[in-house]
Amino acid sequence: MASLRFDFNAYPYLTADLPGVEGVIRSRPEEFQVCEVPAYLPRGEGEHLFLLLEKRGLTTRAVLEFLRDRLGVPEEQIGVAGLKDKHALTQQWFSLPSRFEPKLEALQELPGLRLLHWARHPHKLRVGHLRGNRFRILIRGATAPGSAERVEAVLCRLAQQGVPNYYGPQRFGLGGLNPQKGYALATRGKAHTPPWLGRFLLASLQSLLFNDWLALRMEMGLFDRVVEGDVAKKHDTGGEFWVEDAEVESGRAQRFEISATGALFGRKYREARGVARALEDQVLEKYGLTRQHFASRRGDRRPIRLPLAEWAVEAVPEGVWVSFFLPKGAYATVVLREVLKRDPEARLEPAAEEGSQDL
User: Which keywords describe this protein according to UniProt (predicted)?
Assistant: First the structure.
């Protein structure tokens, strides 16, 4: 059976023919900036209070616990759209019942936290209620002649063909070993794992299988193509459909109008057919798994690629700043991996990383 350990360096690059640059990221939190782009702005009235918080060197969980313990907000009444990384300077929205507005001054007591804006809204903020994230990241040490031009070439290719929608290292835990634990749950049962942890570990296994499927498609030249039976996603509307005429629809894929989607296996999702289903089966068989092993998960589909927008490159004496926007669910580390031609997080201590849907 193939190894279940996540290895970011093992996956093919979309820009393998373009040289990378030398450098490191996250030398300081302010060199990895993330600004959450909400799906909607607060209306200015209602029973909930939306807070735009800037945090430096703090996990989302640390802020949530501070709101719970210092302000006295019941944890289930705190809303957040997504998780943000610790080793960064981030702007993120939280929500809490508006009755806690008189206590907002206490936010200044947590080092690294700053309140930028607040307003009322009728509803609690929910997970996934964001459009995406804007990133501004310094590649420190990328000072060799031509470094900025190399970065520009990579980002231009990604903007034209799409960013491979791999799950990043944050999804797989310390040493990339969470898929192994998820595999044990899928094949041998619950054991003594708490339900929330079981869901997390099985999601890690789902993510590894998706990454392997994406890598297989890239190796076969099917990154910007579709095959018979694919469940394709329309980038303008988000709608999905089964591909019947692969030759016709591949033209739309090459124009970046549609993309194939991969399975996050579960009990309820749109399943691929024909040739596309055989490719998914090939990944499952590599690990001795079947779709039935994921009956406890709901299931979903994830596009093979995502658009890269609002990108820019700026050379400075310390290196190169890169800026870009990614939709929710995407990982900035996937873009940086293409630029550096290696795992950009390899030198970080994995235990300090926070799992995220956005990074």
Answer: Isomerase, tRNA processing
